[in-house]
Specification:
The complex is a heterodimer of chains A (161) and B (579). Chain A has 161 residues and is of the alpha+beta class. Chain A has 2 domains: 74 residues, ACT domain (Alpha-Beta Plaits); 73 residues, Alpha-Beta Plaits (2-Layer Sandwich). Chain A is built from 4 helices and 9 strands; from the N terminus they run E-H-E-E-H-E-E-H-E-E-H-E-E. In chain A, strands 5, 6, 7, 8 and 9 form a 5-stranded antiparallel sheet that branches. Chain A has a 4-stranded antiparallel sheet with strand order 2-3-1-4, with helices on one face. The longest helix of chain A is centred in the middle third of the chain and has 13 residues. Chain B folds into 3 domains: 188 residues, Rossmann fold (3-Layer(aba) Sandwich); 161 residues, Rossmann fold; 169 residues, Thiamin diphosphate (ThDP)-binding fold, Pyr/PP domains (Rossmann fold, 3-Layer(aba) Sandwich). In chain B, helix 2 packs parallel to helix 8 and helix 10 crosses helix 15. Chain B is globular. With 579 residues, chain B is α/β, with parallel strands linked by helices. The longest helix of chain B is centred in the N-terminal third of the chain and has 15 residues. The chains are: A alpha+beta (161), B alpha/beta (579). At the A-B interface, helix 1, helix 2 and strand 4 of A face loops of B.
């Protein structure tokens, strides 16, 4: 089972390695990890997708909380949340199939952010499934390169973590 | 000898500085912080990157004990902390100095002991260049410290020192390391020591939840077969008196872990002795038959629980621990109470009364009579258990420090502890070579006490160079080597589980320990007959000198009883050997 954790940490040197080291030492698996500064520049937010049963989740949460630089850990799994990932996909494209690719991008509300004579770069945001779907559709044209972020997530409504 | 006038001058400076700022070097600031934290002794070893700190130390009145290997500095700081409850401090240079601390830091981390380790580091501008004696010690110690710091700005020294002592000593205690680049120690800063610590992300829970405590009390009141299982957390929280009060009020028997030894008086009628792999049979039987386990400051380690699925299958479990991450880590817990053991027990006492345990205590008394701790005494051979008993008779309030192995188990099984902080041993990490340097820290902290390092001929050789330290500093610890010519505990496992194939565990006749002691200027005594045991112990105590006693004990004596690894703890075997 997958869980999405929102982890607020001190925006400080070495915090990422503390969190990564904890996961490695205790044998927990990270599916994805995204880190960025929050509205408060002294705090960073890590969104961590971790795989495991409830017991594992409980231990992960408690062990994270033990780190001095971790301010708060929230499990977003049980909450009504909005989740997004971002992918940049460089795909083979020439005059013959450019419009076809643009149609696919349109359907996914993706953006073309670079065009060259033999390639295009497509920016797509969405949940994991959507990104997998567009990846599948673009595969026949030949994906030259793909870069993907980890998942980020917020609760719906006025409540914050 | 240092000039006494310098101390006075320093004192005046210290007083003068209270509440205002003064310019000083980073190195002086570090020493000043140690003063403010009430540190009287540190253990260390100098080197290139800590020269400015050592220079500041030279005319301070903090006692510095010069060890002969940095690992001993960490163990000594650990021993000092275990004996006093105060934070122990060790100091080492960068690179190899710092990495030599690692085993000591890991030992303290596993047993939740508050130490602050200070390490030198190459200057900031050289970090990452693979400079001479550079090691990424914050990276290396990440998983074995409660927290660590790499200082980047000399002005942070007072705040970071304050935070380090706070983090090390509060909540679940543990080691904190501060890595200090050399250039910061020569920089001038405005020194101002903060009065409080502001850490938004660190707020340990002290008070137990009162609803949970009431629920626990209800369970206790209706239990017929309760057992209190107490660990090192009782000692670190100074909760022994409340533990005793709880046991007596409820009339519940008490068993302790290895690190919990001393938390409850061994001679108390409600005491069951140690539980687990080398625990008493009656402690293990009691746990397995109990209907309620009250765990206090213990963490259900595998040496305690044996086969986890067969552990106390009929019991509900109340778990009192300061660290929420320990709750339900290894066993399912019915009533968790997160908080300081002393505070929780104090509250719990208000809601409990005598439980219906008369039949249970009778059953336990029957077990105690049927399966007492015993060994078969020798006429010509010295039994190791006999030495422990004789040390106890010679000095009932001695502090017993141990290395790791058979002698450690015999010390835990046969010394009759009556006070907390009198049994000091590496439980979690099981560090051979811990005892002797730890005993240095213990004796420095408690010069009024007789301090024994119970040792094996294997363990002792991992730290024997510290004989130079105890002689130079005149720290009169007594090293009792249980010399059986084997790495005994490993040999015991080879005997039982590897068909007596003693692969690389025989170390017989490799060293003359008496001559070794004498070479360093310590008193060396050899004991080869049972009749010589007691006189040698008396002589060592009376000498007031660092003393090593080389006891030639029965070579293939086993630690008994024993739960084989992976078995349930009531599947416990007798392994006593005839004389």
């Amino acid at each position: 089972m997958k869980h999405t954790l929102a982890v607020l940490v001190e925006n400080r040197y070495g915090v990422l390695s503390r969190v990564a080291s904890l996961f490695a030492r205790r044998g927990y698996n990270i599916d994805s990890l995204a880190v960025g500064v929050t509205e408060d520049p002294t705090i960073s937010r890590m969104t961590i997708v971790v795989r495991g049963d409830d017991l594992v989740l409980e231990q992960v949460t408690k062990q994270l909380n033990k780190l001095i630089d971790v301010i708060r850990v929230t499990d977003l799994g049980s909450e009504d949340t909005v989740e997004r990932e971002l992918a940049l996909i460089k795909v083979n494209a020439d005059v013959n199939n450019r419009s076809e690719i643009m149609q696919i991008a349109d359907i996914f509300r993706a953006k073309i952010i670079d065009v060259a004579s033999k390639s295009m770069v497509i920016e797509v945001t969405g949940d994991e499934n959507k990104i997998r779907a567009i990846e599948q559709l673009l595969k026949p044209f030949g994906i030259k390169e793909m870069a993907r972020t980890g998942k980020i997530a917020l609760r719906r409504g006025p409540k914050s973590v | 000898m240092k000039n006494i006038n310098v101390y006075e001058k320093y004192d005046q400076q210290s007083d003068r500085m209270t509440g205002r700022t003064e310019k000083m070097t980073g190195a002086r600031a570090i020493i000043e912080c140690l003063y403010r934290e009430g540190v009287d002794t540190i253990f260390g070893y100098p080197g290139g990157q800590v020269l400015p700190i050592y220079d500041a130390l030279y005319d301070s009145k903090i006692r510095h004990v010069l060890v002969r290997h940095e690992q001993s500095a960490a163990h000594a700081a650990d021993g000092y902390a275990r004996a006093t409850g105060k934070v122990g401090v060790c100091l080492a240079t960068s690179g190899p100095g710092a990495t030599n601390l690692v085993t000591g830091i890991a030992t303290a981390n596993m047993d939740s002991i508050p130490i602050v380790a200070l390490t030198g580091q190459v200057p900031l501008s050289m970090i990452g260049n693979d400079a001479f004696q550079e090691a990424n010690i914050t990276g290396i110690t990440l998983p074995i410290t409660k927290h660590n710091y790499l200082l980047q700005d000399a002005n942070d020294i007072p705040r970071v020192m304050k935070e380090a002592f706070h983090i090390a000593s509060t909540g679940r205690p543990g080691p904190v390391l501060i890595d200090i680049p050399k250039d910061l120690t020569t920089e001038l800063i405005d020194f101002h020591y903060p009065e409080t610590v502001k850490l938004r992300s660190y707020n340990p829970t002290y008070e137990g939840n009162i609803q949970q405590i009431k629920k626990a009390a209800e369970e206790i009141l209706r239990s017929y077969k309760p057992v209190i299982y107490a660990g090192g957390g009782v000692i670190s929280a100074n909760a022994s008196e409340y533990l005793r009060a709880l046991a007596e009020k409820v009339q519940a028997p008490v068993t302790t872990t290895l690190t919990g030894m001393g938390a409850f008086p061994v001679d108390h009628p409600l005491f069951l002795g140690m539980l687990g792999m080398h625990g008493t049979k009656y402690a293990n039987y009691s746990i397995q038959e109990s209907d309620l386990i009250i765990a206090v400051g213990a963490r259900f380690d595998d040496r305690v629980t044996g086969k986890i699925r067969s552990f106390a299958t009929n019991a509900k479990i109340i778990h009192i621990d300061v660290d929420p991450a320990e709750i339900s880590k290894n066993v399912r817990v019915d009533i968790p109470i997160v908080g300081n053991a002393r505070k929780v027990l104090e509250d719990l006492l208000k809601y409990v009364d005598k439980a219906p345990t008369d039949d249970w205590l009778q059953r336990i008394a029957h077990w105690k009579r049927s399966y007492p701790m015993h060994y078969i005494g020798g006429k010509d051979n010295i039994k190791p258990q006999y030495i422990i008993e004789q040390i106890h008779e010679a000095c009932k309030d001695a502090i017993i420090v141990t290395e790791v192995g058979q002698h450690q188990m015999w010390a835990a099984q046969y010394f009759r502890f009556s006070e907390p902080r009198t049994f000091i041993s590496s439980g979690g990490l099981g560090t051979m070579g811990f005892g002797f340097p730890a005993s240095i820290g213990v004796k420095v902290a408690r010069p009024d006490k007789v301090v024994f390092d119970i040792s094996g001929d294997g363990s002792f050789q991992m730290s024997s160079q510290e004989l130079a330290t105890v002689v130079q500093e005149n720290i009169p610890v007594i090293i009792a080597i249980f010399n059986n010519g084997y790495l005994g505990m490993v040999r015991q496992w080879q005997e039982l589980f590897f068909d007596k194939r003693y692969s690389y565990t025989c170390i017989r006749n490799s060293v003359d320990f008496v001559k070794l002691a004498e070479a360093y200027g310590a008193l060396g005594l050899r004991v080869t007959q049972p009749s010589e045991v007691r006189p040698a112990i008396e002589q060592a105590i009376a000498s007031g000198r660092p003393t090593l006693i080389d006891f030639w004990v029965e070579c293939e004596e086993n630690v008994s009883p024993m739960v084989p690894a992976g078995a349930a703890i009531n599947e416990i075997l007798d392994l006593e050997r005839k004389a």
